[in-house]
Every structure is written in structure tokens, then in C-alpha cells.
Amino acid sequence: ISICRDLPNIEVITFSVNGISDLEPLHQCQNLSELYLRKNNIASLDELFYLKTLPRLRVLWLAENPCCGPDPHRYRMTVLRNLPGLQKLDNQAVTEEELSQALVDGVEITAPPARRQVENGWSQSTSSSAAGSTTEPEGELLSCSLEETNKTQEELDMKPVPRDKYPSFSPQETDCSCKKRNNVLNAILLLMKELDAEGLEVIQQAVVRRLQAFQKKELQEE
Q1: Rounded distance, CA 67 to CA 47, Å?
Q2: CATH number of the domain within which 45 lies
Q3: Is the pLDDT of residue 72 over 60?
Q4: Buried b vs exposed e over 77-115: b needs ≥16 C-beta within 10 Å?
């Protein structure tokens, strides 16, 4: 996610199911308001240190990371103590009562994580994640990616991606392939927000040429 260092104006980031363990590249995204990080390899809540400098962050989805630990209450209270500006955490609205309670039950994070410990945690969580992945529904990864991609498209006043648009999205296709395709699409949609009219025209011309090439290939195959 080092690309985020070059996107200070980005407002919404969806990085779910990406094996991410380090949030340091996000600390320069001062306009970031929504951050989706579920099902990654974030081993320590100390990574929140890099999010404390984001004044506009209102939505955070961090569930299903190793850092959530065995105690859901302590986890939620710690996140809210360090990010009191959140309005929604893990798809659940934040209340004033929770913010007050977080001052008592949450742990304040005052320093960045010790990177060696985080790397060790990442290694362990990777093996456990790989072992558990065989029991997950085969379509879960695709559903997550499509939902987040469609959310981005709605913000850009674009039509959502229909499932039947891509017949190759099936249980037979590998999870890695599904994730890569949707992540690329979502990244492109997010980066479009950073472009001016001239830049969008360049993108439009490139897309037209690409589509023409695909159409020509299909005709040749027929």
C-alpha cells in the first residue's frame, strides 16, 4: 500500500482481504474519511498510531484481523479511545456512551509498533489464515470485493458491477484471480477521483482503444 504515500487527497480506501500488516503509508492521507481493512494481517493495534493523525477519518472496518484479539470489548474500546472521531467501526455506529467508556476501558497508543514484533505476528497469522481459508465460502472473497467496488462506483455516480457481467467470476476461478481483478478495478475507480478533465480524457481514449482491441479479437475468434 505504499502508493498511498502519493495520494494525500484520497478520501475512501478499500483494502480488505489483502494481506496488509503495516499502516504507516496511510498517515499522510489527510483527507481520508473511510478505510476498509477487514480480513488482513494487522497483528497489533499499535498500527492505529498511524491513523491518529487523520482528522477526517469517520468510518473504519478493521474486523477479522489478528489485532482484534479474543476480547471484542477491549478491542473496540481501544480503537475508539485512539480514534474518537469515528462515527462507525466495523459497520456498527459509534455512540457517545462508547466514547466515554473508551476513556476508561481502552488503551491509549502513544508510539508506533515495534516492527519486528508485527512481522512475527504477520508470519503467524499468515499460516493460520492459509489453514483456515479452505473452510471459507468460495464466493466470500468475490462478494466482499464486489460490494466495496460497487460502493466506490456509487460515489462516482456510476452503475454498480452486475455479477452476470463477468461470467468468469465463478467458484472455479481462483480466489487470487478474483481478488486481483476486483482490486485493480477498485484502485482505478479510486484514482479517477484524483484526475482533472484532461486526465480523464486520456483515460477515456485509452479505454476506447482497449475495447476496440478486445472487439477485434472477438471477431477474429468467431
Answers
A1: 9
A2: 3.80.10.10
A3: yes
A4: bbbbbbbeebeebbeeebeeebbebbeeebbebeebbee
Measure the CA–CA gap between 115 and 42, rounded to whole angstroms. Answer: 11
Q: In angstroms, what CA-CA distances link 19 with 23, 34, 39, 111, 112?
A: 12, 19, 8, 23, 20
85 in any annotated domain: yes
Give pLDDT tens digits for 49-62.
999 999 999 999 99
Q: Which three cell numbers stand for residue 136?
A: 471459507
Listed residue (115, 127, 122) closest to 46, CA to CA: 115
What tens digit of pLDDT does each residue of 162-194 get? 555 554 444 544 555 666 666 677 777 777 767
Nearest to 12 by CA among 53, 57, 55: 57
Give me 220's grid cell: 477474429
